[in-house]
Design a protein that fits this description.
The chain has 122 residues and is an all-beta fold. The protein contains no helices and eleven strands. Helices cover 0% and strands 51% of the residues. Strand 4 and strand 5 form a beta hairpin. The N and C termini lie far apart (37 Å). The model has no long low-confidence stretch (mean pLDDT 95).
Length: 122
């Protein structure tokens, strides 16, 4: 299973970016999918997750109301639309496929993408 994240870049505060994560290989579209991020010098943290149907979404409090996670199972792709970006959103963003456990736990995910860098300047 491979996860390929893309869409990162540099943007000014208040701007928007859209991340994509393409999933390939032997996996089921019934996996819950998540986005995590890791800022310099900090631990990786949960950002958002979406159920296999797309009907249920979960967000960290820090991004709620600004970020939107979605998925297109026909394209094996998960998206993260990020609006009203803040300098504290600067981090490497990772997509991941859930195996079991709480959706906000890193240990609940068994496949990870390579990460894409998002830089927000003030």
């Amino acid at each position: 299973v491979q996860l390929q994240a893309s869409g990162g870049g540099s943007v000014q505060a208040g701007g928007s970016l859209s991340l994509s994560c393409v999933v390939s290989g032997r996996t089921s579209s019934r996996n819950l999918m998540g986005w995590f991020r890791q800022a310099p010098g900090k631990e990786r943290e949960f950002v958002a997750a979406v159920s296999w149907s797309g009907g249920s979404t979960y967000y960290a409090d820090s991004v709620k109301g600004r970020f939107t996670i979605s998925r297109d199972n026909a394209k094996n792709t998960v998206y993260l639309q990020m609006n009203s970006l803040k300098p504290e959103d600067t981090a490497v963003y990772y997509c991941a496929a859930h195996r079991s456990g709480n959706y906000y736990d890193l240990s609940a995910y068994n496949y990870w993408g390579q990460g894409t860098l998002v830089t927000v300047s003030s």
